[in-house]
Amino acid sequence: MKLQAVIFDLDGVITDTAEYHYVAWKRLGEQIGIPFDREFNENLKGISRGESLERILEHGGKADAYTPEEKLELATRKNEHYASLLDSITPDDVYPGIRELLLELREQNIPAVIASASKNAPQILRALELADLFRYVVHPDSVAKGKPAPDLFLRGAEEVGAEPNACVGIEDAQAGIEAIKSAGMVAVGIGEEITLKSSGADVVLPDTSGLSLEFLRGLIE
Question: What would you measure as the largest C-alpha separation in the chain, in angstroms?
């Protein structure tokens, strides 16, 4: 079997925007009387904006304190702050080895796809000057369920005509690894081995510098 596509998460795999998410959510939490710390923030990695807000409200004992319309306003307020922080991103913020891997994939005509819970993915990729190296970016609103459901990864494979079992997914979050495995793909984790292995990662690398086309092909072929 040949490698047909590589499907990437964005935050924590292509670049680090996790700190910006934390800053924006923390400020919103403080505005509505729900302070939280970095430990709790780990629960928000890899999931959608709406689900993150629900977890924050539950954490603060305010799960039923807001109407759907008010929740939408809160999520929008957070995203506006987060988007303003993205203005500082430059191509220098691409993680080690990622640009080189994407160039290898393009040279071999193997599609690279983004399957991220972030609705800001196109903006981030443009800032990183990587947009042209991805064949497709899955919009989170285009699927029924976010991670840990497999929908984002399955849609990414479908859009580039790849069979799921011939795809490699790359993630740094437990929810993302679970989504990749549910999609029937090979899962590469980036980060803490114990945590990601427990979620089903086939292999875990401490950082992105070890990624290469040869390495990914070896996992499939």
Answer: 53
List of residues 6+ apart from 147 with CB closer than 8 A: 46, 47, 48, 117, 173, 175, 176, 178, 179
- Distance CA(140)–CA(9), nearest Å, equals 12
Q: What is the pLDDT of residues 56-114, one digit of tens each?
A: 999 999 999 999 999 999 999 999 998 898 888 999 999 999 999 999 999 999 999 99
Residues 60 and 163 grouped into a single domain:
no
Give residue for tokens 């304190």: 65
Which two structure tokens, joined as six digits, stand for 214?
A: 């040869």
**Which sequence positions are flagged as catalytic?**
9, 11
Residue 174: domain span: 5-15+90-220
Closest CA to 130 of 37, 2, 15, 3: 15
Distance CA 88, CA 40 (A): 25
Same domain, 66 and 114: no
